[in-house]
Amino acid sequence: MDRVSIIIPALNEATCLERTLRQLSILNPPAWEVLVVDGGSQDDTAAIALSAATRVISSSIAGRSLQMNLGAQVATGEILCFLHADTLVPDDIVAVIQKTLSDAEIVGGGFISLMAGSQQTRWGFSLHNYLKTYYAPLLFRPHLFFQGLRLLFGDQVIFCRRTDFWECEGFDAALPIMEEADLCLKLVRRGRLKLVNRVVESSDRRVANWGEFKAIAIYLSIGFLWGFGVSPRYLKQFYEDIR
């Protein structure tokens, strides 16, 4: 079976990284390797990763696209899986990914993201995240939707073959946000993207910080403006970093 490399871009993620790495340590079957790409954290992110016997790669410049590309350059597995530091995955994720990509027509995929926190599960946001995987490409790139385009985002744990990733030149390092959607647009030229019918749990910290109404307005505005061609560099100003 193809080996799966899990790549985690991180910047000041000490509050959640330990839990994520602890769960990755009990995957069955295990990942081939877990790489934490640190973007210059000022907290204990790197120390936590090292204590978990995880390989830590230091990036001289912070930026999720840059960090994920750096991790992909170092990774030795045939399959790349990009995981956010605040996202929890099922124990059998490696087997699920391997089975999905055993179909040569499928170039990559992601999971259903259930947004949750310590106080509640965000069912409405989770439903919308599921639906936008389908309605966003249908609305904005209908010709590609029928070729197999599904718009996947970072909290959905995107995975693909390393060869396809580099044939598409990886993530666009110039994009501060929407880099995953951009990758999907490139990958679909090589095959279909699949939303796997399994759940990963993502932190609701951004919604908790913004509040639900502000979060809804920001998510919808960024999504629709991007769909109509507004530059992600302009849209980044509305998408502040939350830790």
Which strand-content bin applies to the residues? 15-25%
Shape assignment? globular
Largest sheet descriptor: 8 strands, mixed
SSE string, helix = H, strand = E?
Answer: EHEHEHEEHEHHEHHEHHH
What is the CA–CA distance across the termini? 36 Å
Q: What structural class is derived from the secondary structure elements?
A: alpha/beta
| Average pLDDT number | 92
Residue share in helix = 40-55%
- With strands numbered from the N-terminus, the spatial order across the biggest sheet is 3-2-1-4-7-6-8-5
Q: How many E-type strands?
A: 8
Give the low-pLDDT segments.
none
Total count of helical runs of at least 4 residues? 11
Radius of gyration: 17 Å
Report on the structure:
With 243 residues, the protein is α/β, with parallel strands linked by helices. The protein has 11 helices and 8 strands. The model has no long low-confidence stretch (mean pLDDT 92).
